[in-house]
């Protein structure tokens, strides 16, 4: 399993970040648990990743997708860019798949964002791609509380 995170779409330059490249970006978070209680690992602020790719002025949305394409969530860039944390390591090693790796996305203070759509499943395990766009992208998050609860029950069994 290799760490690779792609940033594509409405950007100056599409980027593919390896584990070592993520470690070298500014905006490092040495202890994710200090910002996200109950979580662990090392990461980098989403804003640093986006800055490296050069987001277009018209890029109003980000679609966060897993490597297998089974899950994606489209969120407003203006709200998430400064709150996003991309976790890529645990104890200095690549984030294990069992912990949502090789890359996992969290939104800090998601409840205070003021956008209800962000609360449900906006934190993405096994993140492989971030695509910036002018309009909302593919979003397969559950639409009802029952479907949302069922998704998390399935994940517990894995």
Mean pLDDT: 88
CATH architecture annotation: Alpha-Beta Complex
CATH class value: Alpha Beta
Helix content: 10-25%
Contiguous helical run count: 6
Head-to-tail CA distance between termini? 18 Å
Estimate the strand proportion. Answer: 25-35%
Quick one: how many beta strands?
Answer: 10
Given helix and strand content, the structural type is alpha+beta
CATH topology: Sulfite Oxidase, Chain A, domain 2
Low-confidence stretches: none
Number of domains: 1
Q: What is the spatial order of strands in the main beta sheet?
A: 2-1-10-5-6
> Please, what is the CATH homologous superfamily?
Oxidoreductase, molybdopterin-binding domain
What letter string, H or E per element, gives the SSE order? EEHEHEHEEHEEEHEH
**Oligomeric nature of the chains:** single chain
What overall geometry do the principal axes of the alpha carbons give? Answer: globular
Sheet with most strands: 5 strands, mixed
Radius of gyration: 15 Å
Short précis:
Helices cover 24% and strands 30% of the residues. The protein is an alpha+beta fold and 158 residues long. It has a single domain (4-156), classed as Sulfite Oxidase, Chain A, domain 2, CATH 3.90.420.10.
Protein described:
The structure is a single chain. This protein is an alpha+beta fold and 158 residues long. It has helices at 19-24, 32-35, 46-53, 77-80, 116-119, 145-156; strands at residues 4-9, 15-18, 28-29, 42-45, 61-66, 72-76, 84-90, 93-94, 104-107, 127-133. It has a single domain, classed as Oxidoreductase, molybdopterin-binding domain (Sulfite Oxidase, Chain A, domain 2, Alpha-Beta Complex), CATH 3.90.420. The protein has 6 helices and 10 strands. The strands form 2 sheets. Strands 2-1-10-5-6 form a 5-stranded mixed beta sheet. The chain starts with a strand and ends with a helix.
């Amino acid at each position: 399993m290799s760490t690779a995170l792609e940033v594509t779409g409405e950007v100056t330059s599409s980027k593919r970040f390896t584990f070592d490249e993520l470690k070298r970006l500014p905006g490092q978070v040495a202890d994710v648990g200090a910002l996200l209680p109950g979580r662990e690992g090392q990461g980098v602020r989403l804003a640093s990743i986006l800055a490296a790719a050069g987001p277009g002025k018209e890029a109003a949305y980000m679609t966060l997708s897993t490597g297998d394409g089974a899950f994606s969530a489209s969120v407003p860039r203006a709200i998430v860019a400064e709150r996003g944390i991309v976790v890529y390591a645990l104890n200095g090693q690549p984030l294990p798949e069992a912990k949502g790796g090789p890359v996992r996305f969290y939104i800090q203070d998601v409840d205070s964002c003021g956008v209800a759509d962000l609360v449900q499943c906006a934190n993405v395990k096994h993140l492989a791609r971030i695509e910036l766009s002018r309009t909302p992208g593919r979003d397969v998050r559950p639409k009802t509380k029952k479907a949302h609860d069922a998704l998390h029950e399935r994940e517990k069994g894995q």
